């Protein structure tokens, strides 16, 4: 719940910070370290998950040999199974950081063995019966795999386009569309469902033991035109389910993506997930969860890209010392590291909002899915300039860098990425501007914390219009507090003065956005397609990113010895966002960028991750 705006912003609880003092945070760190150990030394040519093996698989366009051990031997499937069903899925921050470790090694690994299984399970946890949920959880916990033939959005691309249809058998789906464990409301068992059609790009198609299929059950494009089926592959007669290799992808070449075709497959009525026509609603629920979590996982690849650039810059520096970087190199590295922190702040807030503020989580999720891929893509492109001519090498760390840069556009949320996130955000902003902005109070501080107790996760919660905007409320509330405390807490006075000016600029931008969005008529159904409203949404997303960073810093500012407690990184983050917005910026009166560079070098030499957590990584000989 949001604190009434008239009340002062309460002091946050003692922060877990990046020291991992709290038990939940410590457990996450331990699991991340375990996955890092299992993946082994990236520089070891004999390591099946090393750079050479990954680049060889990419060059052949084949899945990494032995990658199935991730599910069968390491129990990675448990990460996407709820704790109540025997798995480890209890909190989004754990999920994101564990699967982020896969992306640090390879986007193909991350998509094929992390994101793909996650997206397949979400409709089951959201709408499955007790029997369906138990079957899926037993499958994944036993080392099996689940794949999804996703919902086809109107603005999808031709590569992923293909449709499956599901029609009643002789006495299949009841007219009212309601089933209970395969039995209609009248209690009379029915025949089944006839499934036909194909989907050309299904992650994990060749090895999937189960398939979650979004199929058309009604002609036309209405909200109830599609339904979702949970199909057990082994139950289908021979020749009814055909699996083929997909066309060669431009990226993710070491990720197994294939085509599935169903040839008049007769399925039991209990195959249906939820009710007939629930497909669009289940797709929206899955999309909200994916927007909040998947971008944070992909950040692992940005971590590796930055580490590669630091390594290269150090090799080129006089005496081979990473500390002797040129001013231009230092500026690029600092900007990219700060961008990664901005992205992770959004990821943290969006994920924890699913627990703490589910009724208001849609805005943060959409902003995260929209902003993070853009910032990450730009950042990795910037790093390619640091590599210079070596960027064109296709071996070793340089080859891994190039592969991630190529794969990055294909790692978005679903197959349309930011476009879908923007379309989810735009329609909500005029109403939020009128009802929420500058009125709501500060959200709970747990939204910005690391670790700590969280309410249970409800993946099946219906997707509704956001009840409030916790990010806009954070910006206004903390901005007021920064002015009230006179800059006595949180860092050097010069940096805090810069910070107050930057926060004031973002708050002013929020006021301008509110004034313009309030001019959009409440009944204007064409507003989401209006280029002016879309441009305002772009600007709002950057303001919201700044608010997420501000909330994380404010929560950690009393954590002794924590880099996140210092205002240097936040000043750099807000300067970058303000520059993108074209806002007037204060002069640099403090060496904030140099403090960021020192942190970059310290984390490089101590093998800690370039994110909010500084997790210990496998000591790479790079």
TrEMBL record:
Record's compositionally biased regions (Low complexity): 12-25
Region (Disordered): 1-25
UniProt superkingdom: Bacteria
Classification via Gene3D superfamilies: Acyl-CoA dehydrogenase/oxidase, N-terminal domain (1.10.540.10), Butyryl-CoA Dehydrogenase, subunit A, domain 2 (2.40.110.10), Butyryl-CoA Dehydrogenase, subunit A, domain 3 (1.20.140.10)
One Gene Ontology term of the molecular function aspect: acyl-CoA dehydrogenase activity
InterPro entries: Acyl-CoA_Oxase/DH_mid-dom_sf, AcylCo_DH-like_C, AcylCoA_DH/ox_N_sf, AcylCoA_DH/oxidase_NM_dom_sf
Protein name, UniProt field: Acyl-CoA dehydrogenase
Native organism: Streptomyces echinoruber
């Amino acid at each position: 719940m949001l604190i009434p705006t008239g009340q002062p912003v309460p002091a946050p609880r003692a922060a877990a910070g990046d020291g991992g003092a709290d038990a939940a945070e410590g457990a996450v760190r331990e699991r991340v370290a375990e996955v890092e150990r299992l993946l082994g030394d990236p520089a070891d040519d004999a390591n099946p998950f090393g750079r050479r093996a990954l680049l060889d698989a990419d060059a052949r366009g084949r899945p990494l040999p032995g990658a199935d051990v991730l599910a069968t031997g390491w129990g990675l499937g448990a990460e996407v199974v709820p704790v109540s069903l025997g798995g480890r899925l209890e909190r989004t921050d754990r999920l994101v950081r564990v699967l982020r470790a896969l992306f640090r090694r390879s986007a193909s690994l991350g998509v094929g063995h992390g994101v793909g299984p996650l997206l397949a399970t979400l409709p089951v946890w959201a709408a499955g019966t007790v029997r369906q949920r138990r079957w899926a959880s037993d499958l994944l916990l036993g080392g099996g795999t689940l794949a999804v033939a996703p919902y086809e959005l109107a603005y999808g691309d031709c590569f992923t386009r293909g449709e499956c249809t599901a029609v009643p058998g002789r006495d299949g789906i009841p007219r009212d569309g309601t089933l209970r464990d395969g039995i209609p409301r009248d209690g009379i068992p029915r025949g089944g469902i006839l499934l036909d059609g194909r989907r050309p790009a299904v992650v994990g198609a060749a090895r999937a033991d189960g398939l979650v299929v979004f199929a058309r059950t009604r002609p036309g494009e209405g909200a109830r035109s599609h339904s979702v089926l949970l199909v057990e592959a082994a139950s289908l007669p021979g020749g009814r389910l055909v699996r083929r290799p997909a066309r060669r992808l431009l990226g993710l070449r070491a990720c197994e993506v294939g085509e599935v075709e169903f040839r008049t497959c007769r399925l039991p009525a209990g195959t249906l997930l939820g009710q007939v026509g629930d497909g669009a609603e289940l797709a929206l629920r899955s999309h909200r969860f994916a927007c909040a979590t998947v971008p944070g996982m992909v950040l692992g690849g940005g971590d590796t890209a930055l580490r590669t650039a630091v390594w290269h810059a150090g090799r080129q520096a006089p005496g081979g010392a990473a500390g002797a970087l040129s001013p231009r190199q230092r500026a690029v590295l600092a900007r990219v590291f700060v961008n990664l922190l901005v992205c992770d702040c959004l990821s943290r807030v969006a994920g924890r909002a699913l627990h703490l503020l589910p009724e208001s989580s849609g805005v943060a999720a959409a902003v995260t899915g929209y902003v993070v891929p853009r910032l990450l893509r730009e950042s990795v492109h910037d790093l390619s300039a640091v590599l210079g001519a070596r960027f064109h090498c296709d071996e070793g760390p340089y080859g891994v860098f190039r592969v991630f840069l190529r794969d990055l556009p294909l790692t978005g949320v679903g197959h349309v990425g930011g476009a879908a996130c923007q379309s989810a955000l735009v329609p909500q902003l005029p109403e939020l501007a009128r009802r929420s902005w500058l009125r709501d109070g500060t959200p709970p501080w747990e939204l910005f914390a690391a670790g700590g107790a969280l309410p249970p996760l409800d993946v099946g919660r219906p997707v509704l219009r956001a009840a409030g905007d916790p990010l806009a409320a954070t910006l206004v509330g903390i901005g007021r507090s920064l002015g009230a405390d006179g800059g006595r807490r949180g860092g050097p006075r010069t940096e805090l003065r810069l910070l107050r000016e930057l926060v004031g600029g973002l708050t002013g931008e929020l006021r301008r956005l509110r004034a313009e969005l309030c001019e959009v008529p409440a009944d204007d159904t064409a507003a989401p397609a209006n280029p002016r409203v879309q441009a305002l949404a772009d600007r709002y997303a950057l303001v919201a990113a700044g608010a997420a960073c501000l909330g994380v810093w404010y929560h950690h500012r009393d954590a002794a010895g924590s880099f996140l407690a210092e205002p240097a990184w936040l000043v750099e983050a807000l300067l970058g966002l303000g520059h993108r917005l074209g806002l007037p910026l204060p002069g640099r009166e403090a060496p904030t960028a140099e403090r960021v560079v020192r942190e970059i070098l310290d984390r490089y030499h101590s093998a800690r991750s370039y994110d909010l957590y500084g997790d210990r990584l496998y000591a790479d000989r790079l």
